[in-house]
Design a protein that fits this description.
4-stranded mixed beta sheet; alpha/beta
Chain lengths: 440, 440
């Protein structure tokens, strides 16, 4: 079937034969279908969606556009976690060593931050010497020996997705649930995993602002996973305020280390435990969630998670001493408090605004080619529900060497992100829903 | 506003500032906006439409992408007629001389046939010597001296439309009412007309198969005309069977000449009179429709229309003797009847199938670069409601020199186009609706 006919059918909401979808992806990747036809197809998908068989065919074709790792020679269940992106989300830094310490193999391919959201690779690189670009053979060795390895995406994983994403980015077709789901899953399935835990963020700091959109995405992801014979769980989690307190490379590494030392913010710990426990259950190393949670908490309490992070860091060329002694991490030359001008209870924090404030300090990227300052960032001193007096700091800015904006401008951003009032604030739920999609 | 933002807004159904629409069209035409962004925009328009201000800006930008004729130095009201295309539609060949004979100036820029529909240029070229490619100055002279001139579109009229149409044709975005309307009107408004009569065809042989779609198109066309300060009328007319009996270049010229000699099929005459009368009213040369119809009928009856066609033909290099003596027109070396295998009343004729049968004989094009055989075509001997006996011819095939299919295959096409049954057939209405859109 010609590309024209595929676009035409999708436009009119008629089923497209799965083989025709696969052919479209292949022909597009290899340059036989021009960008303008793929752009029209993506916009038609924005309006019409993809059926389950169409989606399966679409993802399979993207997945097989590049290398698919075969980790069957690495013993143990291979389970990864993927987050749709948020502000202050350093879960992976603690989750990967904790899951590995509990007997799951974690082959994790992560991304970089863009806009208001951070990326795991940038955070890892705040650890002196840490290498995220490793050849596949080294990735496999570290995974087998330590139980986890965290690297960046290579050019050889799902090149169709990279080409398509660049096009979607220019044609306003990014915000399509099936296209987002296909993009995520084609990359994750290329990792050679057996199971996947998805953290689908909802709220002001997330890609999905509304629960129903996040649920649709989670269901699409789970459905793809099911269709490909993988075990998949998705948690819908709150991103209406930053996760934890730290936002920015080295600051987030410190907070993850705090967690692994049985300290640090409660919300970060709760989410990390829950997601790691889910990996243990999906990987079949724990019989049920309560037992899985107990094991993760134990691995925090007895320091096995922290030691595992040191071990992984060393294997990937990083300096484990910087984890034991955070003064060896990059740090800002000066800090500055953002004092509150109001008294009351924090009603809400616009997480996206906080993410953009951190970016303005140099902790993030506005374009993919920008460099990140690992020392820059901010620490949220007051979270939703906290009482605040006039003059008390809402947040502390860690001033980087190459900020995009003046400290005054960033301070205004942070202050603007806070809603302070007198109404009592009900406790926010961190984990909103769980969506499961095991093999049929 | 960047193209991305325009696409994004249109996708989400938010208003786009008219200036941003105009900028998009200009930047696309001049190569600053890539094809893939325009493709995504067109697909978003397919789903979201264009508001009146957006449409006005879109059409204006397409119109001004090329030359806009100024015919203000040609005295008299300039009025054109445009048909959305059908099978056996030779109205323009009689309408242009009739309107000119009644005092309207007709600057008509026509197209070629494609697929099952014929084009006025191909029909004109069946007249030996007739030139449809004339320089603008000669077009103006003939218009001023004879009252009508019929030419083909030049590269300098609405180049944005040509570029956009080629893209839409490859991206399944042709069938969008606002894009169709913009394409038609940008070309027609470039002719320097004061008013325009639109013949929007509905039915099996038309682009629009359903009355509601045709009505939406007619209303969009009228709305654009109104917005541009032109007087526009649109008639929704039946194309559920071929118009008249002849389909194919020279055969249609003969039928148009028959009409101008007060002979020929009733439906062709009725529609031609109605559309021409509409031009007289819009052009202000007749006070009302009944009087306009009387004048057109008089110009048929006393031969002024026929003489005017001869005059125009001579001015455009054609041989007027071939109009007086149709044996001088191209003719097929052999003909073949398609006898009916059934007895009864003709319930319906699939006009598109008849158009494709004529194309298969060599009378049409499957691709724009194909050549048309002016002698090839067919004559429909039985129309809807006619009684037919077994063995009586349904149609006569005029076999061209380079047919695309065998006579047997074409015969099967024609027979398959006929539905014959015993039910009484109510008379079909030829003119279904009238939609007007004068200046506000």
């Amino acid at each position: 079937m010609r590309a024209y006919e595929v676009i035409h059918r999708k436009r009119d909401g008629r089923p497209v034969p799965p083989e025709a979808i696969a052919e479209l992806v292949r022909d597009y990747t290899e340059g036989r279908v021009p960008e303008y036809q793929m752009a029209a197809f993506c916009m038609a998908v924005f309006f019409r969606g993809l059926s389950d068989p169409e989606m399966r065919s679409f993802v399979t074709a993207m997945l097989h556009s590049g290398d698919v790792l075969d980790l069957s020679d690495v013993p143990g269940p291979k389970v990864d976690k993927h987050s749709t992106g948020g502000v202050g989300d350093k879960v992976s830094l603690a989750l990967a060593p904790l899951a590995a310490a509990c007997g799951v193999k974690v082959p994790m391919v992560s991304g970089r931050g863009l806009g208001h959201t951070g990326g795991t690779l940038d955070k890892l690189e705040a650890i002196p010497g840490f290498q995220v670009n490793l050849p596949v053979e080294r990735f496999r060795e570290i995974l087998a020996s330590t139980g986890a390895c965290l690297i960046g995406q290579t050019d050889r994983i799902a090149p169709a997705d990279r080409k398509l994403y660049a096009l979607r980015d220019l044609t306003a077709t990014v915000e399509s649930v099936p296209l987002i789901a296909a993009s995520i899953m084609s990359k994750k399935l290329a990792e050679g995993i057996d199971a996947l835990v998805l953290d689908v963020k909802v709220g002001s700091g997330a890609f999905m602002k509304r629960t129903e959109d996040a649920r649709r995405l989670a269901e699409a992801l789970a459905s793809i996973g099911r269709g490909m014979g993988k075990r998949v769980s998705a948690l819908l989690t709150d991103m209406d305020q930053p996760l934890g307190r730290a936002v920015g490379g080295a600051l987030e590494v410190r907070e993850a280390v705090d967690l692994l030392r049985d300290e640090g913010p409660r919300d970060l710990r709760e989410l990390t435990v829950e997601l790691t426990a889910e990996m243990l259950v999906l990987g079949g190393v724990a019989p049920d969630r309560p037992e899985a949670r107990r094991r993760v908490v134990a691995a925090i309490g007895d320091g096995r998670g922290f030691l595992k992070l040191c071990e992984i860091t060393e294997a990937q060329g990083g300096d484990p001493d910087a984890l034991a002694d955070p003064s060896l991490l990059p740090s800002a030359e000066s800090t500055r408090d953002v004092p509150s001008r109001e008294r009351g209870l924090v009603q809400a924090i616009d997480a996206e605004a906080i993410g953009l404030a951190a970016m303005a300090l140099g902790a993030g990227r506005s374009r993919i080619e920008d460099r990140v300052d690992p020392a820059a960032g901010l620490v949220v001193e007051k979270k939703v529900g906290d009482a605040v007096e006039v003059g008390e700091p809402l947040a502390t800015l860690h001033l980087g060497r190459a900020p995009l904006e003046s400290p005054d401008a960033v301070e205004a951003r942070v202050r603007g992100a806070y809603q302070i009032g007198s109404a009592p604030v009900p406790p926010e739920r961190l984990i909103l829903e769980r969506i499961e999609g095991g093999p049929p």
